Amino acid sequence: MKTSKGKIKPQKQNNAKKSRKDIRQAKRLAKKAKRNEYYTNRNKIPGPVVPDENSVKPMKPTKRKSQPTNVAPHVKESTKPIADNSSIAKCVEKEKKVHNELKAVMNKQRHKQMIEANWEEDKNIKKLEKQLKLNKRKTKSIPKTFAEDGLDYLLEICDSDNRRDIIGTEMDTEKINDDFDEDFDLMMGKTSTSHNKPEDDDTDDEFSDESCNVDNTEDFSDDETMDVSACESGSESEAENSMSEDEEVSDGHEEELDTHQENLSKNEDKMVQDIYGRLRHADGSVVQEKNVSNKYVPPAARAADTDSTLLRLKRQIKGLINRLAESNMHSISSQIEALYNANSRHDMNETLASIMFENLIVSTPCPERLLLEHVLLVTILHANVGSEVGAFFLQSVAQKFCTILSEFVDNVEDKRMDNAVNFIAQLYNFKLFNSHLLYEVLTKLVDKFEEKHVECILNVLKNVGFTLRKDDPATLRTLIQTIQSKAAPELTNNNPRVKFMLEILLAIKNNNVNKIPNYDTSYSEHLKKITKSFIRTGNYVTQLNISLEDLLKADEQGKWWVVGSAWAGKRESAQLDQQTPVTAKSTFSNKLLALAKKQHMNTDTRINIFCILMSAEDYMDAFEKLLHLGLKNQQEREIINVLLHCSLSEKAYNPYYSVLAQKFCDYDRRFQMIIKCSIWDKLQTLVDCSPAQISNLAKLLTHLFLEKGLPISTLKIVQFGELDKVTLRFMRQILLGIILTPDAEQCQEVFLKVCQSDKLKMFRESLRLFIHHFLLRNLRKDGGSRMDEAQKSLLEGRAKMLDKLLLSANDRKRKLT
Fold first, then answer.
1. CATH code at 522?
2. What pTM did the predictor assign?
3. Is 353 within the bounds of a domain?
4. Is position 245 within any domain?
5. 6: left (phi over 0), alpha (psi -120 to 50) or beta
6. Tens of pLDDT along 597-620?
């Protein structure tokens, strides 16, 4: 082939020599293919090969690369050829045997490790039980943690005795359902034969209907009209019949006493030892020791024994008082309260007061912190032990003050009077008595008006001056005018104490705290705030209304503020505005007072309340008269207690008490709480009530629930899982009265109040189950209750409505969570 220049170009041959790059690439590809083939076929077991002599070609021996020195010997491939199937099977069996042996060793090791782990876990559990003190449970009762998790029923059902009790309870429940008609008749106002039985007629605790009928045509229907004008006349006939009734009751009590003695004689051999080491009979009564010596002790020996007891008591109290501080106030007050329970109150008051006066009323200035902590202790004992404790300290310090005041010599350095006045002022600051007594003390100081007395007045004004201004500003204004008139001559002598006192008075009058130098009441206010944390639930500080004259002449005229103490009465010179116990003897007739005595009204307050309830024209008249009694704090509870007593003592339900209780609930919320607490106390002793009392209480609560005086959640303390026959009938009567009320909206509003709280979920579920099991179940029985068809349909319809209402409340709460 010629080119454009005429030269011949050589043709490219296919068998040209390959470059080194192509050769290296070909080697790499071959090496990869060989390696891939090796790794693919090395795990395959070759089958039997039958060689053909004609087709078999002799194989040239190939050279193998030397293995690296760091490779383990067992990794090298075997160069021995596989001879036959038997050798292959032997290898497989050998490998299986080794695998099985290895597996057995591993299982054995795992089992050993599990045993060691379980042993270690048991050891940790015992250690934690010891730390949590869970291994000291001596009885075989259900653990608390089990009960909290809701698993206690699993242990109960495993016990055969418990299973028998459950079956017995179911049978008792069937019998209780047979009383449905009687409960329905009671709540619907029909007569029931159960109240006419002799065993239910407690004539000693009940009084006739004639003695408690109130005429109130405005608020009651004709069949509920009550007339109280026959109260006194009815009580006379009752008094005539009381003799025969008391004889029957006394005979019954004698029979019960004989039966009780027989039971004690039978159970003498069945004695057990309680946790305190005392022997008890089978009925729970403590066995009295027969080895107690009744030797005669001469007066000299008695006095020696008493002196040693008082000395030991003084040492105990002094040890506690010496360690008194805010940090250990709770423990020390609890120990002193225990001493009050174990010893005579007179000895305790005398000893404690003498020790405190030795520490506080001394000739040197008493530190404010020390004084306030002692006053706080007196306040706690005044609330927890009784008001007579605070009254005793008040009387003692008042007498101490008057003694120091009468024996005072012109000695400004003596601080006993200052400390006594400060003690009285701080007792007033902690609300142990009202301002009237402190004003009397200030008046005595103003009458003297020397340098020491002016200093004491200054201390009182700096500590509690603004509290006096708040409690009684009119009396403070009069006191300021008296001090200014007394201070006029002193100002001419340029007495600095008097000038300073007048400046303090002006600052208090104008309510100007900044004008008082070194004014700091932060610690006293702090102690007043934490006082409630040391007082037990249900107790409170009762403010005493005692005059200084009563305290100073208590040994002559008596202590009217102590329950059961004799009192000579007020003298003509005493102030008329001082509140004294109101006696009912001059206000009410003897017949009404005799009826009050028969109903165990043992205090003047209870007698006044009872007589007002029995003699009022209607519930409004009774309400106003009871408010005019001016009762405070704990005395207000007596109104509700007497009202409940009278309501339950009626043979037939009297709506007068329910309407009056509703009026008190509407008047102030504190009466609502008092009624609720009284109902809770009554529910604890419901088993001791007669059927008539249970029915009256159920109707009273039904009225309060429907009229919104009390919420139905008041019944949340009822243990629905452990209902006895009495409580079951009580709950059924209440629910029948609410469900069968004519106003459907009123019935629904009663249960709406419990649908708004997560804490009442269990109570809602309990109400649903109770309505289904003890109300609707009676309607489904063949030949069931005596209710007509209209009432049955009403009960079923209302029950379904309430079931949806309570169930929807639970679903709504569940969706929110």
1. 1.25.40.180
2. 0.40
3. yes
4. no
5. left
6. 888 888 888 898 999 999 888 889
